[in-house]
C-alpha cells in the first residue's frame, strides 16, 4: 500500500468519526440529565414555590430568607427541620414518588407541597 493510499484512508476514517460524533451530539443535548437539586425559599411567611415538582432522587433545600425563625415539617412525619434562623438551610432527599405536604410548625398557616415523580 502506498503512502498516498494510507494517507487517504486515514483522512477518510477521521472524517467518518467526526460525522458519527456530530450525528450523536444533538441526541445527547436533547436528553440532559434532570436536576438533582432544587431550592425552596422561605420569605414573607411563605414557601416559594408553593408546589415544587421534582424527580425521585432530588435533594430539596429550604433556605430561610425571612427575618424570623421558621421550620419545615412534613405532615406525614417524613422530614422535620430544626428551627431555621435567617439564612439557615435544611435539606432532604426525596427517594420515593408521591405528594409531600409540609408546613412551618411555628406558623402552621404556612403550607406547601413537594410532588415527587
Order of strands, main sheet, comes to 2-1-4-6
State the CATH architecture of the largest domain.
Sandwich
Strand content: 35-45%
* CATH H-level superfamily of the largest domain: Cupredoxins -  blue copper proteins
Mean pLDDT: 83
- Give a count of the beta strands, DSSP E runs of length 2 or more: 8
Report the end-to-end length measured between terminal Cα atoms. 60 Å
Keyword list:
single chain; about 120 residues; alpha/beta; Immunoglobulin-like; four-stranded mixed β-sheet; 1 helix; about 25% helix
Task: Please tell me about this protein's structure.
By secondary structure, this protein is an alpha/beta fold. The protein is 24% helix and 35% strand. It has one helix and eight strands, in the order αββββββββ. A hairpin with a 2-residue loop joins strand 1 (37-43) and strand 2 (46-48). The longest helix has 28 residues, at 3-30. Residues 7-14 and 24-33 have low confidence and may be disordered.
Q: Would you summarize the structure shown here?
A:
The chain is α/β, with parallel strands linked by helices and 117 residues long. 24% of the residues lie in helices and 35% in strands.
Secondary structure layout plus pairing:
Blueprint: H1 3-30, E1 37-43, E2 46-48, E3 51-54, E4 58-64, E5 73-74, E6 89-94, E7 98-103, E8 111-116
Parallel strand pairs: 1-4, 3-8
Antiparallel strand pairs: 1-2, 4-6, 5-7, 7-8
Amino acid at each position: 500500500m502506498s503512502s498516498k493510499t494510507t494517507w487517504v484512508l486515514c483522512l477518510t476514517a477521521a472524517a467518518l468519526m467526526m460525522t458519527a460524533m456530530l450525528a450523536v451530539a444533538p441526541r445527547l443535548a436533547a436528553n440532559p440529565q434532570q436536576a438533582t437539586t432544587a431550592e425552596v425559599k422561605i420569605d414573607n411567611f411563605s414557601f416559594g414555590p408553593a408546589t415544587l415538582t421534582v424527580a425521585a432522587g432530588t435533594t430539596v433545600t429550604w433556605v430561610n430568607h425571612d427575618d424570623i425563625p421558621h421550620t419545615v415539617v412534613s405532615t406525614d412525619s417524613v422530614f422535620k427541620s430544626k428551627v431555621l434562623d435567617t439564612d439557615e438551610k435544611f435539606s432532604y432527599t426525596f427517594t420515593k414518588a408521591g405528594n409531600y405536604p409540609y408546613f412551618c410548625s411555628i406558623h402552621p398557616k404556612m403550607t406547601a407541597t413537594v410532588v415527587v415523580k
